[in-house]
Amino acid sequence: MFKKILVANRGEIALRVICACRELGIRTVAIFSEADRDSLHVRFADEAVCVGPAQSSESYLKVPSVISAAEVTDVDAVHPGYGYLAENAYFAEVCEACNVRFIGPSPQVIRLMGDKARARARMVQAGLAVLPGSQGALDSLDQALEVASGIGYPVIVKAAAGGGGRGMRIVRSPGELSSAFSTAENEARLSFGVPDLYLEKYLEKPRHIEFQVMGDRHGKVVHFGERECSIQRRHQKLIEESPSVIVDQDIRERVGRQVEKALAEVGYSGAGTVEFLVDEDRNFYFMEMNTRIQVEHPVTEMVAGVDLVKLQIRMAAGEPLELEEPPRLRGHSIECRINAEDPETFRPSPGRITAFHVPGGTGVRVDTAVYSECQVPPYYDSLIAKLVVHAPSRPEAVRRMERALEMFIVEGVRTSIPMHQRIMKEPDFLAGRLDTGFMERYA
C-alpha cells in the first residue's frame, strides 16, 4: 500500500480523497492555489504545497508545478480527483516517468477513451451498441453532410476530445449543418486544443444513464450498477440517483456484463463510468466514458455499500478486486449538487459564506469543503456541496431530500437549493418521467 499520496485537486473532492486516505493510514499532500490557502483540504492534509496563483491554468492545471510538488514531498502516488488533470494522459505519463503512481487507468486507455470517436469505434468492436453516426472523426463538412443524409435528421455534432457540452451542436436540417460544424469545430479547438468532430443521430427525449465500474490491475472489471443522470442543464448534471426507475435487475445484469466485458478487453483499471443514452424503448446506446471517479459517485456508494475512493486507491496499489459478483443495490439514493449560483439565472454567486449549517439525521450525507466565513472564489467551478440521501424506497428518498434541503442553510451567497426544492415537487420527477430535456420544460 502507498505511504503518501498527493491530491491533485481542490474543494470537496480533495477533502473526500483525504478522508479515504486517513482511513487507509496513508499520509496526504494537498496542493493549493493562492486563492485556496485557507481551504479545508489544505487544513486536513498532512502537508500542503502552493502551486501557483488563483487561475487554474497557472496552478491546478500546471503539470510541472504539480509534479514538482509530488517530487519535493516524496509521494508514492497522485490522486487526480475529477476535472483538472484527472483525464489528462500526458499527466499520467509524466507521473509514471517520475516513478509516481497515477491513481487511474493507464495513459494509453485514458487517451483511447478520451477520444470520443475512437472510444465509440472501440466499444462497437467490443459489443456495445451506439447510435448511428460517423465512423471516427469527420474529414470535412461534405462528409458530415453525407453521413447526416444517410442516418436522417436531427443529428448532433460533437467534439471528439470533448465533454461538458462544449464543441456540441444539434442540427435539425441540412441548412443548419455548415454553421453548426464551423461553430463546434472552433469551440473544440479553443476548449480542447483538438478541432476533430464526429456526428451521430440525435435522440429527442433520451435518458442519460451511466454504469459505475472498477477494474484491478489483473484484468478483472466489475460494475456497481447504474445512476440516473437525466436532470441536466446545458449538459451539466444537477441531480443524480441510483437505481434508475427504468432499469430492472435483468437489464442491469445484461448491460453490466456488456460493460465489464468491453472494459476488460481494453485493459481498464481503476474507477470509471460508462455513459449511455437510453431511448423510450429502453435501448442503451454507448455515448462516452469518463476515466475517473465521478462527482456523483456517492449515490452508488450509498446503494452498493462500498467506499469507491478507497477501493480506487487499493486497485492502484495493485490489490486484486475480490468481488465475485456485482453488489446488489439496496434502497434508493439521490444526490443534489448545491452550487453557489443564482437559482433563477444560474449565474455564479461567489463571495463570503456568512452562515453555514448542513442537515443531518438518518440517511443524510453532505460532501463539502466550505465552512462559515470562508470565501467562495470566482475562479473555479461553482459546486460547494453535494447533498446525498439514502432511504429504503424512492418515495422515501424524495421526502428525505425535501427535509434535508429545508434544513440546509447557506447565507452570504445565493445557491441552487431553491431550484432543487422545486424539482422535488414536480409531478414528472415524482413519477420518474425523466429525460435530458427536463430542465428546459420545468425549471
Give the topology, please.
Elements: E1 4-7, H1 11-24, E2 27-33, H2 40-44, E3 47-52, H3 63-72, E4 77-79, H4 89-97, E5 101-102, H5 107-114, H6 116-125, H7 141-151, E6 155-159, E7 168-171, H8 174-192, E8 197-201, E9 207-215, E10 221-233, E11 236-242, H9 249-265, E12 270-278, E13 284-290, H10 297-304, H11 308-316, E14 332-339, E15 351-352, E16 355-357, E17 364-368, E18 375-376, E19 383-391, H12 394-406, E20 409-411, H13 417-425, H14 427-431, H15 438-442
Parallel strand pairs: 1-2, 1-4, 2-3, 4-5
Antiparallel strand pairs: 6-7, 6-8, 9-10, 9-12, 10-11, 11-14, 12-13, 14-19, 15-18, 16-20, 17-19
What are the main properties of this structure?
five-stranded parallel β-sheet; eight-stranded antiparallel β-sheet; alpha+beta; 443 residues; globular
How would you characterize the overall build of this protein?
By secondary structure, this protein is of the alpha+beta class. The chain has helices at 11-24, 40-44, 63-72, 89-97, 107-114, 116-125, 141-151, 174-192, 249-265, 297-304, 308-316, 394-406, 417-425, 427-431, 438-442, and strands at 4-7, 27-33, 47-52, 77-79, 101-102, 155-159, 168-171, 197-201, 207-215, 221-233, 236-242, 270-278, 284-290, 332-339, 351-352, 355-357, 364-368, 375-376, 383-391, 409-411. The protein has an eight-stranded antiparallel beta sheet, with helices on both faces. Strands 3-2-1-4-5 form a five-stranded parallel beta sheet. It starts with a strand and ends with a helix. The mean pLDDT is 96.
Termini separation: 47 Å
Number of helices: 15
Helix content: 25-40%
Contiguous low-pLDDT stretches (5 residues minimum) are none
Q: Any idea what the radius of gyration is?
A: 21 Å
Number of strands: 20
